[in-house]
Amino acid sequence: MRPLVPTHVETLKPYVPGKPIEETEREFGLKGVIKLASNENPLGPSPRAVEAMRNVSGATHLYPDATSFHLVRKLAAHVDVKPEQVVLGSGSNELIELLIRTFTTPEDEILLCQGSFSAYRISAQAHGRPFVEMPMREGFLYDLEAMAKAITPRTRMVFLANPDNPTGTAFSRDALTRFLAAVPPEVLVVHDEAYCEFVEWPEYTSAVPLVGQHPNLVALRTFSKIHGLAGVRLGYGIMDARLAAYLHRTRMPFNLTVLAQAAGLAALEDTEHVRRTREVNRAGLDYFAAELPMLGGTLTHSHANFVFVDFGRPAVALYEQLLRKGIIVRPFAGQGFPNHVRISVGTPAENARCVQVLKEILT
Ligand SMILES: *Cc1c(COP(=O)(O)O)cnc(C)c1O
């Protein structure tokens, strides 16, 4: 008998999401559990997006606009590109899948950084695409020089998370432009910048301003983090119009709901929510950077909305102790970081409670 699924599906280890609040409360008989596990926006969704979704909810019996006409135009203006260069997705995760499906064959290799965002590896494997993972360099940084050297005639696509998840580290504009200069034009470079709106490092650049000179470059962004719309599923890619046209052929016609399109339009206007999100995040990163080393934690320099901390002890056990006290974080033992937990920045009160509970456990 032939196997039910191909080997690459049989051996696929699925994505492990952050544990939901409700499930944790049920399992441990707790109330008021805090989730600092999925880099969600601690301020909640953009209030203007919530209002916009309420306003269109009566029209949800109709199929959405398959072209997302208004949102595409607004986003294009927002990032200063042509509407033909914008592709929307049900989260940027859908765009990762679409890029792999559209531009690679099972003979093509996908180049990744080991320990970085696991969705790239999972999507590659789910499509039966071979992938090569290059180790990070000292300091949990992408080793772009080694990655450029690892490109072979089989390499078709490279994924870069900048800032990276789960490490929070970032690489500079110089490093990115040097990498792009070393990459053959037929290799697609996907610059996943899910956290770019949080970066305050002057040497950082989004890939969006470079897309014009690099027809093989794709910038991926999301409404899940800065706009607080992770539950709505809305992401976008900015790229050469020729690449975008191919994605429009392969994507599902109604990949964006009526609610997502309305939410996106309103969230882009909600500059106050974005400003407050950045402010709360900055304060939270500073707070963790001051407090966690006093508890024996070693932090990377995070440019995102979470910290990546080594407490010098097995992370899974620490994660479980935190769960029992009502704090959900994320251990990364499965991805080669046995002692690291990732803690998302919460509200000031949530951050303080997290530090308090860590203090109880660690001292
Ligand atoms: C959170 C995150 C995303 C966003 O995924 P969505 O599907 O848009 O919610 C993409 N890439 C990285 C590296 C992330 O951490």
From TrEMBL:
Tell me the superkingdom of the source.
Answer: Bacteria
Q: Which EC class does it fall in?
A: transferase
Query: What does the subunit section of this Swiss-Prot or TrEMBL entry state?
Result: Homodimer.
This one is known as: Histidinol-phosphate aminotransferase
Family designation? Belongs to the class-II pyridoxal-phosphate-dependent aminotransferase family. Histidinol-phosphate aminotransferase subfamily.
Q: Kindly list the cofactors needed.
A: pyridoxal 5'-phosphate
- Sorted UniProt keywords: Amino-acid biosynthesis, Aminotransferase, Histidine biosynthesis, Pyridoxal phosphate, Transferase
Please state every residue range assigned to the domain named Aminotransferase class I/classII large. Answer: 32-357
Q: Which Pfam families match?
A: Aminotran_1_2 (PF00155)
Taxonomy of origin reads:
Bacteria, Pseudomonadati, Myxococcota, Myxococcia, Myxococcales
Q: In which pathway does it act?
A: Amino-acid biosynthesis; L-histidine biosynthesis; L-histidine from 5-phospho-alpha-D-ribose 1-diphosphate: step 7/9
According to its UniProt record, the EC number is 2.6.1.9
Catalyzed reactions per annotation: L-histidinol phosphate + 2-oxoglutarate = 3-(imidazol-4-yl)-2-oxopropyl phosphate + L-glutamate
Q: Which residues form a coiled coil?
A: none
Q: Which GO terms describe its biological process?
A: L-histidine biosynthetic process
**Does the keyword Nucleotide-binding belong to this entry?**
no
Enumerate the GO terms in the molecular function aspect. histidinol-phosphate transaminase activity; pyridoxal phosphate binding
- Identify residues that carry N6-(pyridoxal phosphate)lysine: K225
